[in-house]
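Risk register update: the risk that structure generation would not scale has been downgraded. Supporting records follow, first protein first.
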Amino acid sequence: MTEIIMSSELFHVVKESSVNVIGLTIPDGLDSMELDALIDNVLAGINPAAGTLWVADLSGVAYMGSSLLGLMVNIREAIRQSGGKLILCGVAPGLARVFQNCCLERLFIFARNRAEAITMAKR
């Protein structure tokens, strides 16, 4: 059963199998005001009381610039500070290269898909 915790056009937070899943839908060409609002809303949605197991599904991400990389690092830090675990999934090859080129792949745990990420989060 999936429980919707927060939802907007660009992201949603749902609970699947006792794991919080952040789904991002980032189109190419998002303007800076929309991006700033997205960052604020996503970080507000990382509520430690919601639980410590998190998956970020990036399958809807078409663009990942420095602001969104910063968002991913901030999400990781907020979850880590609450004693939680974050798994990334749905990372397209081009997006994976962005993480590698910025030397950020060591900060994250990657899964091939959402189901695998949920399983990994529960371990």
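Supporting record for the second protein:
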Amino acid sequence: MKRCLSCQSDYQANDWLCPTCGSQPEQMDAVLAFAPDLAASNDGLAPDAHHALEQVQDRSFWFRSRNRIITDLVQHYFAGARSVMEIGCGTGYVLAALAKALPKASMAGSEIYTNGLGYAAQRLRGRATLFQMDATRLPFTGEFDLIAACDVLEHIEDDRRVLREIHRALKPGGGLLLTVPQHPSLWSASDDLAYHKRRYRRSELGDKVREAGFRILRDTSFITTLLPLLLLQRLTSGQKKDYNANAEFALPGWLDRLLESAVGLDRAMINLGLSLPVGGSRLVLAERPR
């Protein structure tokens, strides 16, 4: 169902005109905008961040490896999902991987910045419906079989509210997939430049997910094999005032492939059912109870 963000009523309709109060979202850059005042500037991300990401994602082991781990788990736990939304889809890199992994599912993506949605539209080529919206105010109730938010919650002050909104937007039995950066001790200039509000403690994300009413299916770290290297990087170059975060994603090809192979070990262990206790990132897969 759709939810009117003006009067908070839920309704079934083909369009977005609220039958109760008559309000409807505006059109912005060829997408429906539910939070137009935040579409160009907010405190969650640098305005030019998606332009930079679009240049590096395909060439970075980190983005490729994260996609593989995400799609492995989605295909294992939620292969039957027929309606999927990614919150904070950015340039559509994860959403495109989900669309490929779930070819029969209808796909939707949301992003607070409209400049990210332009890239997503090019990448998805009509495979997904795209929206501009604020993750703390979702215009859906009981609508989706699966909702993903990959490296999104750390950009939002009230992450608990986002989890409650996702819980409402999911169908009973629907799935939640989250990835976040982990370990406050790894905080560096990279987190400052990315507008992160936090790096999560080891059990923090799982605790907040349960608090929102979900049942956890998997809770594991990744970027575990590379953790010593990541820690060294964060304690050295990551503390410099002139730190260039994009340099992390512009590695020589041989080094990028070597690091990708290392993260492949994390992926293999996760696919065996192991929950890795530490790592640069955390992944939680959960279910809204029926």
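The CA atoms of residues 72 and 271 lie 7 Å apart. On this basis the risk owner (M.S.) recommends closing the item.
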